[in-house]
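Milestone 3.1: sequence recovery, worked example.
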């Protein structure tokens, strides 16, 4: 995280200048309900209206607890980026054909069926 005071104070994701000050700590959260605090170490972070959280202090990569918090921030950022509309659209475009592609493929299939039928009829007449 950049703590350079000359950098803009707005959210680098959405540009908002409004944040919520929150305190984060590491927990085990159980699927059947309940939670357990894993560490007494907590982090103050500003959370933007868009959901992006930034630590209010510089995280040191060699500090294991800082590294853990940074990993959580990075995981949240990757999830945010995956759920961005442009990313979702790009993934869908890779997985599915468009209507125009589908119609073109249907036309090709029809042409191939007609060609196959003609060949079959011609071969049938020769024998
Ligand atoms: Zn934001």
């Amino acid at each position: 995280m950049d703590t350079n005071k000359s950098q803009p104070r707005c959210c680098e994701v959405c540009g908002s200048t409004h944040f919520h000050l929150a305190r984060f700590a590491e927990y085990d959260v159980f699927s059947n309900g309940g939670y357990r605090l894993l560490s007494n170490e907590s982090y103050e972070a500003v959370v933007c209206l868009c959901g992006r959280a930034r630590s209010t202090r510089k995280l040191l990569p060699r500090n294991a607890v800082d590294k853990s918090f940074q990993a959580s921030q990075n995981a949240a950022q990757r999830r945010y980026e995956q759920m961005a509309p442009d990313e979702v659209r790009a993934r869908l475009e890779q997985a599915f054909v468009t209507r125009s592609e589908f119609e073109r493929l249907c036309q090709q299939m029809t042409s191939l069926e007609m060609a196959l039928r003609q060949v079959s009829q011609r071969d049938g007449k020769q024998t």
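The longest helix spans residues 99-126. The chain has two domains: 19-87, 97-126.
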